[in-house]
Amino acid sequence: MRDPERFIRQVSERSNHGIFSLQILGRTWNIVTDRALLAQVYQLAGTCIEPSSAQWSLLCRVFGANKRFKQAFLNAREDMCGSPDLYVPHQSEPSTLLSTTTQRIQLQIPQLVSFSEGSVDQSPWERSSHAELVHGDAVEADLFALITTFAGHAILPSLLGSEFLDTYPGVFDDLRKLDSSMKYLLLGLPRWFPIESLASANIARHRLDNSIDSFHRAIDKVAAGRKPELPWRDMSDVSEEMKGRCALWRKHKLPPAVKGPLDLQLIWTINFNVINLIFWLLLRIYSTPNLVEQIRTETAFSAKASQPRQSFGIPEPPLLELSVKRLSQSCPLLKSCFYRCMRLDTSPVSIYSICRDMVITKSRQDLFGNERPASYQVKAGEMLAIPLQVHHRDLQESNFGAETFLVESETGSEQIVDGPRHSIPLDDPETLFPFGEFSESIILALVAGILALWDLESLHPEQPAFPCHQTSPNFSSPVDDVRFRVRRRRLSIAK
Questions:
Q1: Could you give the CA distance from residue 23 to residue 240 in angstroms, rounded to a whole number?
Q2: CA separation for the pair 428, 273 (Å, rounded)
């Protein structure tokens, strides 16, 4: 099935019921696409749906958790839910992790490209994007590889400490291999199944699990007042959030076969939710006429870029100052673009394991035309899936629609963004990959910072080839990368 979303739409339109079933590997999957039935599902979630079923299934099938330790996971998850920043770092107030990550972003965005000819002098993100110096003042690179690898180097060290990437520089390649077979792993296909990428994904997952297990042993030794074993030396810059997670694992005595997959899920989520969306947001902004200048004007006081005066004839790198609070509160056009990308470039899905027979019914006020009342039974042991993208995306849409979520304020004096009510309902606890304010803040900061310092131009502006989305359970990657030319903006000299 090359395009599951189109398939689901077509079957839903033909069935005219808003629910249909598929037999996949001997198990019944009930797909709900009708909004009225969705409300019924959410109402019955507390009595007929097994709690944490989606997360545990995901941990076992995708990230390699051992099924024997489900109860240990459930015990730890109660504390994880009580401390959201220990589960996935989302919080309502700026945290130390957010502050540290913002500082790293400010320092690294001026180094997006080095203008070096040889690969030896290039950064890891330049090498992965096949960056080439052209005309002396511009670099041509594969945009997806450049942006995602760069963002990963800016974000992950803030969470795991700088030594993690130094010790395991191949972590991003392994994460991509794991992501490439996500749909096969979610279906529970065994590693010997004759799909080449599936075997590579299992090998990559094994390397990732080993690296995280080594990291956990080092953190636990430091917590006990001992020195970590080589290759680990200085663990002082590991975030408090990560230390808190590891303390939670020790409290519940979680085995490596559970805590490793839990942290691998966190690393994967940050890398392929936050970072992929940064690529799509930048691509859509730079590909929409006049939008770049509009957002630069809006973010001028939230993302300040300047060029220091030369000292002793040596050019200084540009300076960047970011205000995460201002970006979130005073930049409605940028946030509208962000919410629009959440609709166009994500494919979130909620998955439930049914533990008791349930009946969902359309009420009379939800019926259309000659439609008759109907009830649908979902039996215990079956699966129920809600493909949220069916409700958020129109396949006929061709324009970005940057201002879709802008509305007039109550006073009519300004425009404000009205996004969360209309975007993806990620407060659903069974959405596979949660998304919070930490993620949103980092995306806005990275995008605003790159817009402030860099000009990006497609190599074929007269025929912009917008890449297709790969099949993904959440934040999509492009089928093919796009080649862009990167130049540094001319900035005013700092006083």
A1: 45
A2: 17
The neighbour count for residue 478, using CB atoms within 10 Å, is: 19
Q: 162 near 449, Cβ under 8 Å?
A: no
Q: Return mean pLDDT, the chain.
A: 81
Is 45 inside a domain boundary?
no
Q: Which domain holds residue 306?
A: 64-348+388-488
| CB crowding 217-254: b at 16 or more within 10 Å, else e | ebbeebeeeeebeeebeebeebbebbbebbebbeebeb
| Model confidence band, residue 94 (pLDDT cutoffs 50, 70, 90) | very low
pLDDT at 78: 76
How many domains is the chain built from?
Answer: 1
Using an 8 Å Cβ cutoff, are 275 and 450 in contact?
no
| Residue 332 falls inside a structural domain | yes
Dig out the tokens for 4 from the structure.
């599951």
C-alpha angle 452-453-459 in degrees, rounded to nearest 5: 105
Domain containing 484 — which CATH number? 1.10.630.10
Residue 383 and residue 354 in contact, taking contact as beta carbons nearer than 8 Å: yes
Higher pLDDT, 414 or 121: 121
**pTM exceeding the 0.70 threshold for the entire prediction:** yes
> Do 252 and 72 contact (CB within 8 A), yes or no?
yes
Residue 167 lies in a domain: yes
Taking the chain, what is the end-to-end CA distance rounded to the nearest angstrom? 59
- DSSP-derived secondary structure letter, 354: B
Asked if the model's pLDDT at residue 436 lies above 60, the reply is yes
Would you say the C-alpha torsion 176, 181, 187, 188 has a positive or negative sign? negative
Residue 7 lies in a domain: no
Residues 111-148: b if buried by 16+ CB within 10 A, e if exposed: bbbebeeeeeebbebbebbebebeeeebbbbbbbbbbb
Residue type, 484: F
> Could you check whether the bond before residue 231 is cis, i.e. omega within 30 degrees of 0?
yes
- Strand locations in 318-367, DSSP E? 319-322, 349-353, 358-361
In this structure, of 55-59, 201-205, 216-220, 405-409, the range with the lowest mean pLDDT score is 405-409
Pair of tokens at residue 77: 């998850």
Bridge partners of residue 454, in order along the sequence = 488
Single out the residue of 328, 281, 276 nearest to residue 433, CA to CA.
276
User: In the 8-state DSSP scheme, what is residue 121?
Assistant: G
